[in-house]
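Progress note, sequence design subtask.
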């Protein structure tokens, strides 16, 4: 007789026993148990309902997430899905009504579990099931209230339960749905990654909400980014998405820093879109827009090859057998490769070549069977590569020549084929190289005519395309084996161009001049020294090229010609072996400072000056400019005399300040004309982008000079001549760049806003010396920002005080460990802490905004001090402790500031114990001398004297009014900030009515982990870190903490996101006090609680995870 469990029948089981069996069983058994439970409900609905609700209450007492609880939830979903008729829907309504009431339970675990049950039941009802309006309204009201719950897991489950309620509205895009709007508000302000993930899982995806999903692909949490990609993959077909957005999603997802996110994007989003196009990669990249998004399409193809979803060996063999790709019959005039096909075959051939080389190297390092396997794989890929490529280099040159002759429409294909040939073919054959050289001469030596405007525009765009220039450079280096051969050949081509364009002695047309300068730039980029060009046998020499083409182009009427001529002149100045380029550098400086010059020309001039300074040393450039100025015999009329003789560092800084003023006018003019014709708007956007390019060039030049300063100092010491700029110039550049980073104007200059955060993060991670430069720039930058705040005339709070943002940002950089990964070290900033405490003591007697004082305290408590003990001749721990003690009793210090100073004192005592430092109190005479030096702090004889404190003295206190006067009345207390994210009012006399609600700086080491996580600013894109929206500012406030609940905590208590998010129930839902006048302040809303106390009275969970 076979042994085993006896098959159960409905007669043998109660509701509790059925649920026990569902916990033990798998998903396949749930359908059978659900049918049995429906039989019980049909036989006795009232008893079954009561037993089911009792079991659900027991279920709600279990806080630990286990597999048994997950099985029960899945079972309830299966049970609800079987409600296919009106009687069963009525039974479900009878169960849902009490569950809705129980979701108001006081216990957080119960609220979480009942919301899970509601989600499982409501979310799995059949589409045709219709619940009563009263129940739906009660359910929606309950879940909306749970969206303000203190526990993030409760909020997350409540969101998931609301998934079926959003209304698409007449437009069908959910733009008019209030529930959708509430979800979007939560997504923007929510701190918990669990809740943000739930919002993305619940939020309907439409044309209106798609941009919010795309924003979350840059979320700081890996799980949230993954959920955003998964939601788009499930709900948005590629045909419903613009090609630009699709390419952006793929680029972000396939290059994400988290491997799990990259895998999800590749397996779900990319493969889903590929199946949408019948599994054809060629169709997919064609839809994405090959020419507009070449990098993204290349990334897509490489991902498909690496995952094995596209077989390169099979494609290569098909090309040989079926005449595809490069093996097509190109003798037919109609046969040409389109952009998508050219990119596909380039990526496939490059992948085969790379794989063959890597497998061959791997085989060489192994022995035995492993070596044989790798060698066979390498041979297979080499054979496939030979099958895909033309037979000879000459044949490949003929194919490229045919595409080049086809005009602008095939310029992209020409570049792809040149890059393919350079990377995958052997140019050892002289005949093949000769054919390729002839093809290049035809391609480059024929300038476009002014009659064919399309061809001329295509060539102009090609000369400013990095992809085209990269392909040409690769092909040139392959065809010409040495720099001398390359210079000889290209000077010959330029001689032909010059003879044709300047045949009549007049200036050539703009199109021909731009094309000639493009070829000149291509030549100069391939050379590192002037010697190969000087040794060339061509009749057209480098000096003729310089005098008749480049220098004359600087005076051309066309801004495009002047721009390209300035670029070529900068490349010429970078060559080794040329005479001192004093006159050429002066010409570049004149282009930069000439009023009315095009922004594009000035941007190229600034970039060229920065490149030459990086290559030759900024002091060498200053000497060349000064020598040329002396030889010229005087200054030019009509130009700023100061800028004509200023050092390059001061010139770039002054140009950056002038650009900020000019760019403000450009942005204002563009924003004021948005309602005009679309063509005019397009022109204005182009002007904004052109003006922004100048700012990006100046910022890049300054950033590179600052970053390489120490290297030039070392080279200066080795060579014994002045090359590096002064340290004070580095500090001034850092100050300007920091202030520019927090200037809201640069939001319109995307290149600037992208460059600055990358530079600062990289700069702080280099060495301790680089961080010392940042520390030196700290107080000057803060004072300048405070002066700007004062001039603005606005009422300052921590949310809008730019000096606080500057100090917080620099503090974050100064806390960054430097060095290589795995060997990073912290930098001691006790010298800066000494200055901060002196600044604090001086400012406490001035009319200083309180956020500024609070930022000083936070920074002093956050920075690392004495990591290896006291340095000889530096500040001592005794002095820092004494100044901290002197600052504590200052009248303007509130409780939070005193807490920061106490944390600093604790840190100093810890360092004293660690390194044996002296921390005993100073003698009275020493204290007097110390405080005297503090009183003379504003006349230090250092850099700070150039950046005085922008604050006024405190006004004299008014005379006390007579007793009983109006002034003697006790001021009313500021009402407490309500809501889940509100901050309760502090009743102590030290509390201040003005809250610090802005972006917080890193806290001291003595604080607990929750407070540290809350107050440390995340590294986010600049627009998010500089201008926090009001709802995000509200979410940054520290929530009120609930008293501990009597029952066990829910799953969310184990999640990091739930820390610091509890609140007192009596403040729930109260609006912010500062957003309401006393006359419009609404009464406090008391949260609703369930009248059923059975759940809260349960003292222990089920034994062995079973319902009995």
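Output:
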């Amino acid at each position: 007789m076979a042994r085993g469990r006896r098959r159960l029948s409905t007669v043998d089981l109660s509701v509790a026993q059925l649920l026990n069996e569902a916990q033990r069983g798998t998903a396949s058994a749930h359908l059978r148990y659900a049918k049995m439970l429906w039989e019980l409900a049909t036989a006795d609905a009232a008893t079954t309902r009561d037993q089911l609700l009792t079991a659900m209450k027991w279920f709600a007492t279990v806080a630990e997430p286990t597999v048994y609880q997950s099985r029960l939830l899945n079972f309830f979903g299966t049970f609800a899905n079987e409600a296919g008729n009106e009687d069963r829907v009525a039974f479900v309504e009878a169960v849902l009504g009490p569950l809705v009431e129980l979701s108001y339970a006081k216990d957080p675990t119960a609220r979480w579990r009942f919301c899970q049950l509601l989600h499982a039941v409501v979310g799995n009802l059949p589409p045709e099931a219709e619940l009563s309006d009263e129940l739906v309204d009660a359910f929606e009201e309950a879940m909306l209230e749970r969206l303000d719950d203190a526990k993030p897991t409760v909020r997350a489950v409540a969101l998931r339960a609301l998934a079926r309620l959003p209304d698409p509205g007449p437009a069908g895009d959910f733009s008019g749905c209030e529930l959708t709007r509430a979800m979007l508000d939560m997504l923007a302000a929510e701190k918990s990654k669990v809740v943000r993930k739930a919002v993305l899982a619940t939020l309907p995806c439409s044309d209106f909400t798609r941009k919010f999903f795309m924003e979350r692909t840059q979320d700081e949490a890996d799980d949230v980014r993954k959920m955003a990609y998964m939601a788009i993959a499930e709900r948005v077909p590629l045909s419903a998405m613009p090609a630009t957005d699709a390419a952006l999603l793929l680029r972000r997802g396939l290059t994400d820093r988290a491997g799990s996110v990259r895998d999800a994007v590749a397996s779900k989003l990319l493969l889903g879109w590929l199946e949408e196009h019948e599994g054809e990669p060629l169709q997919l990249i064609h839809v994405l827009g090959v020419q507009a998004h070449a990098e993204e399409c290349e990334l897509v193809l490489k991902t498909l090859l690496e995952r094995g979803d596209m077989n390169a060996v099979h494609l290569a063999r098909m090309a040989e057998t079926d005449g595809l790709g490069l093996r097509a019959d190109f003798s037919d005039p109609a046969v040409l490769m389109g952009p998508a096909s050219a990119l596909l075959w380039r990526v496939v051939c490059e992948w085969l070549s790379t794989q063959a080389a890597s497998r061959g190297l791997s085989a060489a390092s192994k022995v035995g069977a492993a070596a044989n396997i790798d060698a066979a794989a390498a041979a297979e890929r080499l054979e496939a590569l030979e099958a895909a490529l033309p037979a000879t280099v000459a044949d490949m040159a003929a194919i490229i020549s045919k595409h080049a002759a086809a005009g602008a429409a095939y310029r992209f294909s020409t570049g792809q084929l040149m890059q393919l040939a350079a990377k995958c073919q052997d140019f050892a054959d002289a005949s093949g190289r000769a054919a390729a050289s002839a093809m290049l001469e035809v391609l480059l030596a024929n300038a476009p005519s002014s009659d064919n405007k399309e061809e001329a525009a295509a060539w102009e765009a090609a000369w400013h395309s990095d992809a085209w220039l990269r392909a040409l450079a690769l092909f040139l280096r392959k065809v010409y084996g040495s720099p001398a051969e390359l210079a000889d050949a290209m000077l010959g081509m330029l001689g032909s161009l010059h003879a044709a364009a300047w045949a009549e002695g007049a200036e050539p047309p703009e199109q021909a001049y731009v094309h000639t300068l493009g070829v000149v730039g291509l030549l100069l980029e391939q050379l590192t020294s002037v010697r190969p060009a000087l040794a060339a046998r061509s009749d057209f020499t480098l000096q003729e090229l310089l005098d008749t083409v480049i220098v004359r182009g600087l005076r051309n009427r066309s801004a495009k010609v002047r721009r390209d001529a300035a670029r070529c002149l900068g490349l010429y100045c970078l060559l080794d072996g040329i005479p001192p380029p004093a006159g050429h550098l002066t010409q570049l400086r004149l282009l930069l400072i000439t009023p009315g010059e095009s922004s594009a020309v000035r941007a190229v001039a600034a970039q060229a000056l920065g490149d030459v300074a990086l290559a030759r040393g900024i002091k060498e450039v200053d000497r060349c400019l000064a020598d040329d100025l002396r030889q010229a015999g005087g200054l030019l009329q009509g130009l700023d005399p100061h800028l004509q003789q200023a050092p390059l560092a001061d010139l770039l800084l002054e140009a950056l300040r002038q650009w900020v003023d000019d760019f403000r006018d450009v942005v204002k003019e563009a924003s004021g004309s948005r309602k005009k014709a679309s063509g005019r708007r397009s022109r204005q956007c182009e002007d904004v982008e052109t003006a922004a390019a100048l700012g990006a060039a100046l910022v890049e030049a300054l950033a590179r000079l600052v970053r390489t300063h120490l290297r030039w100092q070392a080279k200066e010491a080795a060579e014994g001549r002045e090359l590096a700029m002064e340290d004070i110039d580095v500090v001034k550049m850092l100050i300007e760049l920091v202030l520019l980073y927090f200037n809201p104007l640069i939001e319109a200059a995307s290149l600037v806003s992208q460059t600055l955060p990358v530079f600062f993060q990289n700069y702080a991670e280099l060495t301790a010396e680089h961080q010392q430069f940042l520390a030196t720039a700290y107080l000057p930058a803060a004072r300048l920002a405070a002066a700007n705040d004062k001039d603005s005339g606005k009422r300052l709070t921590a949310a809008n005080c730019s000096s606080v943002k500057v100090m917080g940002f620099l503090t974050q950089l100064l806390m960054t460990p430097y060095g290589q990964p795995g060997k990073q070290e912290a930098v001691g900033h006790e010298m800066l802490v000494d200055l901060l405490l002196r600044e604090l003591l001086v400012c406490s007697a001035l009319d200083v905004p309180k956020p500024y004082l609070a930022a000083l305290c936070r920074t002093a408590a956050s920075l690392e001090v004495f990591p290896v003990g006291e340095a000889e001749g530096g500040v001592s721990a005794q002095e820092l402790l004494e100044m901290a003690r002197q600052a504590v009793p200052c009248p303007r210090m509130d409780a939070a500031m005193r807490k920061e100073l106490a944390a600093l004192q604790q840190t100093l005592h810890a360092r004293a114990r660690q390194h044996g430092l002296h921390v005993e109190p100073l003698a009275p005479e020493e204290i007097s001398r110390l405080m005297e030096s503090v009183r003379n702090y504003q006349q230090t004889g250092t850099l700070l004297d150039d950046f005085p404190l922008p604050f006024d003295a405190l006004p004299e206190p008014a005379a006390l009014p007579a007793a009983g006067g109006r002034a003697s009345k006790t001021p009313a207390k500021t009402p407490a900030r309500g809501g889940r994210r509100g901050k309760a009012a502090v009743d102590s006399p030290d509390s201040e009515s003005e809250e610090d609600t802005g972006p917080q700086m890193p806290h001291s080491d003595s604080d607990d982990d929750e407070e540290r996580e809350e107050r440390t600013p995340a590294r986010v894109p600049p627009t998010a870190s500089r201008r926090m929206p009001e709802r995000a500012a509200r979410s940054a406030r520290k929530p009120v903490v609930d008293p501990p609940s009597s029952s066990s905590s829910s799953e969310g208590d184990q999640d990091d996101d739930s820390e610091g998010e509890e609140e007192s129930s009596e403040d729930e839902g109260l609006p912010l006090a500062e957003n309401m006048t006393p006359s419009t302040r609404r009464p406090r809303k008391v949260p609703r609680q369930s009248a059923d106390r059975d759940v809260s009275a349960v003292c222990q969970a089920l034994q062995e995870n079973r319902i009995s």
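The beta strands are 846-847, 952-953. Work on this subtask will continue into the next period as scheduled.
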